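User: Um, any thoughts?
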Amino acid sequence: MSVTLKTKITIIALQVMSICYAAMAYADDSVEFNTDVLDAADRTRIDLSRFATDNYVTPGDYLLDIRINGQPVGQEKIRYIDAPEGKSTLPCINGDLLSKLALKEDARLKVEQRYENCYVLQSLPGAKLSNYAGVLEITVPQAWMKYNDPNWTPPERWDEGIAGFIFDYSLNGQLTRQFDNSDNYSSLSGYGQAGVNIGGWRVRGEYQTSYYSENHQFDFDWNQLYAYRPLPMMAAKLTLGEIYLNSQVFDTVRFTGVNLASDERMLPPALQGYAPEIHGLARSNAKVTVSQSGRVIYETTVPAGPFNIQDLRSSVRGVLDVRVEEQDGSVSTFQVNTANIPYLTRPGYVRYNVSGGAPSRYNHKIQGPSFLSGDFSWGISNAWSLYGGLQSSGREYTAASIGIGRDLSILGAISVDATESWTRNREGERLKGTSYKLSYAKTFEEYNSSITFAGYRFSQEDFRTMAQYLDERYQGYDHLGREKELYTITGNKTFWADEPGKATTVFVTYTHQNYWDRRSQDRYGFAIGRSFRIGNISGITANLSAYRTDYKGRKDDSIAFSISVPVGDNRWAGLDVQTNNGKTSPMASYTDNSDYNNLWRIRAGASQSGNASVDGYYQHRSQLAEINTNASYQQNQYMAIGTTLRGGFTATRHGAALHNSGATMNTARVMVDTNGIGGVPLNGERSRTNSAGIAVVPDVVSYNSFDTRVDVDAMDGDIEPSKAISTATLTEGAIGYQAFGMAKGMKMMGTLRLADGSEPPFGAEVYNGDGVSVAMVLENGQAWLAGVNPDETLNVMWGGKKQCQVTIPPGTTGQQADTLLPCR
C-alpha cells in the first residue's frame, strides 16, 4: 500500500516549515509556525514546539555522530539537559569528548562543568554546537585549540583499539619443470607475524620459513620477538625486546634491549619523512624478495615488466638487498640505499631516539658488549635544525655525530653531518675514522616534479659502523664491505599535467657505491610514461623503462617498452617488448582490471631465445585472503607456476574472522560488527562480513583518519543499516572496532494503534531490539517498516523515551497491503 495523498501533503507541509525554520533560526532565537496548512485533527497530534527554538532537542540521552570543526570523530552518548531559562536545551558532553577537542589549558578552564562528567561547551566564547540528522557538529575557534592543521587528526582523538590476537602471513610457492632434463623444482617460502594487543601494548613475533625440494630442507625461525606501545602525547614509541635500530643518524644494528624514539608518523604530514621505494624490471613473472641483514622484510610476486614496490615500512632504513627470481630459475640481485630526506625539525621541537641493550644474533643469543645509543634533532628556528648523536659500548666502540640542516624555502632543504668512530679490532688495535654525508631534497609543486633525494657520502677506510665492528670483531669478516663513497639521486617530473591526453611522467634514479675492500656497485634507472589519443581513441598509454645494474662484477641491462590501447571499461590490449643483455622478447597482451577483486593479464609471443612463449597473471581479492597466481610456458625450455597467498586472522571478544592482508607489518586494522548479519560488503567490497556478522578491514594506515564504509548499493535488499560510515584514527598495530547497527528482514506497511485506539504521534521512531531504527510513524499511525521479521518485538519511542511495543504477527510475509500493529 502506498502512502496516501493526504500523508504526502502533510510531509511536504512539515518540510516547508522545517526549511523556513532553518532559515529563520539564524535571525531569531524563537519561531512561531502557522499550522493552518494542516487538518484540524492533525494540529492536535503534532508537537511543533521543538522547532520553535533554535536547535531544540527534547531532554534525554542520544547516541550521536560527532564532528569537531568538520572532522568526524566517532559516536558518543550525549545527554541534553534543560537550559537555565527553561526555553531550550543544552548538550552535555563528557570528559572523554572534552579531551578529544584538544583545547589549550586556559580554554579548558573556561568550560563550565554542570555536574559530574557533564560539561557545557557553550560557556567557551565562540564555541557552537548544532544537532542535525543525528550529527552533533561542534565548532571551536582555532585560537582555543592546540593544533591548527585542518588535514591532521590530533593525538587526543587517536584510538588505541581493543584487545585481541592477530596472525598474518604471506606464503609464496613456486613449481618449475625443465623440459631439457625433465627435472621438477619446487619451493615454498613465507613470512609474517603473530601477536596480541593488550591495552596500548602490542606483543609481536615475526617469523620466516622456507622449503626447497632439491635438498628437502625446511627452515622456520622466529627472527624477532618484541613488544611496543605508542606514546601519542609524547609523539614517541617505546619498544622492548629484539630490535633493529631505526636511526636518522646511525646505521641499523640488531640488539636486544629497549628503545624510546620519536615517531614522525605522529607528526603533521608536512613534518614527516618518506617511505623508501624500489624500482626494478622483471623479465618474466617473478618473485621479488627484499631483505636486510638476512631478515626478509617484504616478498611478493610481480608480473613481467617494470615493478615499483611502494608499501615498505617508513621505518626501514639503510641498505636493502633485492633478489628477483625469474620463473626459469635465473636470479638477479642488487642493493638499494634507502636515503633519508634532510633531517629537519619544526621550530622548538626536539626529535629523539634513545636505545640501550646488547647486540644479538638471529639465534636470539647476545653477542657483543652492551651499548647505549642516542640521537636527536632540534629545531632551532624556522630555517635551521641541529642534530647529532652518540653511540658507545665503552672502550670497544664509540661513534659521535653532529650535523646541521637548513630549510632553503623555495630552493628546497639541505643537511650536512659528520660521524667519527673509535674502534678496537680483534688484534686490540685502535682504529679511528670519519664519515661525511650531504643530503638535499626539493619538491617543485608548481612544476609537478621533485628531487626525492640527492646525496653524497664519504667514509674513511678506518671508519666503522657498529654493525661492521661487530662483524669484524666476532665473525671475522665484513660481509657488507667497507663503504667508501656513495652518490645517489632520485627524481621525477610530470610534463603537461593539466592537459588531458598529454601528461608525460619521467623518472630517473642513479646510485654509485664504491668500497675500500671490494668492487663498486652502479645502478642507473630511467622511465618515461605518456598518455595520448589517436583519432577517437583516448587513454592510450606508452611506457619505456631502462635499468643497468653493475653489482658484484656482473652487469645486467634491461629495457622494456609497452603500449596499451583501451578496448573497454578498464580493459586494454597491448604490446610489450623487453630486451635483456641484448636478447629481445616481443609479447602481445590483454589486461582486464574491470573488477577490482579480480585482475588478470595474459601475454603471448616469443621468448628471448626465439621460442614460443605464453604467460599469465591473476590476482584475486576475497574476504579470506589475497591470491596472486602466475604461470609461464616457454617452448622447449620450461613450464612454471607460482602463487602468493596473503591473509590474516584476527580475534577479539567481539568475534573472529579470517581476512585478506597486505605485506606490511604492524599496520592497523578495523574489526566490523554487523549484529550477526553476514554478507555485508565494506569499503568497495574489499571485505565482507562472515556468517557471524564479523569482518576485518586490513592495512589501515596508522595515525591517519580512516573511513569504514558499508557498501549500501551492493547490499542485499533485505538488509537495512542504521548508518553507512564510521571514522577513526588508529595507532600503530591497533585493532579498531566499529559496530554498525543492522536490521535484516522483510519490508511491510503497518498501522500502529495505542490501547485507547489513538495512534502514536507523527514522527515517533520505531526501533528493533538492537537499537536500529526501522521506521518512522507517519499520519494516522502508518509506518513503512524495513528489516523486520515475524514474532519480532519493536520499541516505539517519542518524547525522548520508550512509550510502547509492537510485535510483528506470526506468518507475516510483507505481501499484505497493511497490517494492524497494536502498541502496548
In short: The chain has four domains: 1-146, 155-234+582-739, 236-268+339-444, 745-822.
